[in-house]
Amino acid sequence: MNILTNLLFPKSKQQANADTAKGLPALNRNPRGIQIKSAPEIEKMRRSGKIVATVLKEIQSITKPGMTTADLDEYAEQRIREMGATPSFKGYYGFPASICASVNNQVVHGIPSAKQVLRRGDVLKVDTGAFCDGFHGDSCITIAVGDKVSKDAAKLIKVAEESLYKGIEQVKAGAHLMDIAGAVEDHVKANGYSVVEQYTGHGVGKNLHEAPSVFNHRTKWMPNVKLKAGMTLAIEPILNAGSKHTRVLRDRWTVVTVDNNLSAQFEHTVLVTKDGYEILTDRNLV
User: If I label 250, which of 47, 144, 227, 271 is the partner at 20 to 30 A Cα–Cα?
Assistant: First the structure.
């Protein structure tokens, strides 16, 4: 689950308190800074990551036209709890579900609904998290409903997933956050798409959202943090087929494209290692 970039910048105590009252996480008040996980903590994160990977792999296999996004949310919560974890998202600053289910022009944070019936050709983003043994795992996939979408939608989904791995390939101790951001941005723009800049990746661990913010585009507004072994990052590029700009619906959660074009997203929780990285939410390993 990504975070609004506006929440990452320094603000007054009064404004931070106002944000909290609105149900927004006051991230920049976290005094703990970037957390380096110990070996035992990493083992716990592997477990939470495996649960998330399992749930998403299963959701991808069961999703079909005629199902509702509420059906998928019910399934995800049941499976997360069966594996000994609790849903990271449900109740998080008031979010009412265990998954974010965003369809077509919905960018992120879509609220599952019994009224949202999936149709063949829909582009469905499913984002979920699991909290187990005191640590979170967080991941997102984009699903072509009915295994058939338009050529334009198929390309968008393909490039979105490729951009995630372009970013992950930059991860290793001694690299910098902007190495990730630059790799993502270059691949996205080379394929004619836009990077959503209003929402960003983040650190993840004992808290669902931790420092540092992990941008998907080059910026001078945030520190270009040097990566260290033991950091755990949620890397999550969001691509729009048209404009990068978005707006939030009246439910105060669902984000949509301003021009009604399609959007796609992929995300993994990634451990920084001395020589590279380990994907903690790798669906190929479950």
Answer: 144
Which stretch of DSSP H or E encloses residue 159? helix 151-168
Name the pTM for this structure: 0.91
Is residue 5 within 8 Å of 27, Cβ to Cβ? no
pLDDT tens per residue, range 102-141: 999 999 999 999 999 999 999 999 999 999 999 999 999 9
d(CA 247, CA 122): 20
Strand-pair partners of 137: 130
- The letter for the amino acid at 118 is L
DSSP designation for 145: G
Q: Which residues make Cβ contacts (< 8 Å) with residue 22, sequence separation at least 6? A: none
Nearest to 179 by CA among 213, 212, 217: 217
Sign of the alpha-carbon torsion through 94, 97, 99, 104: negative
> CA quadruple 217, 232, 284, 50: dihedral positive or negative?
negative
pLDDT tens track for 162-221: 999 999 999 999 999 999 999 999 999 999 999 999 999 999 999 999 999 999 999 998
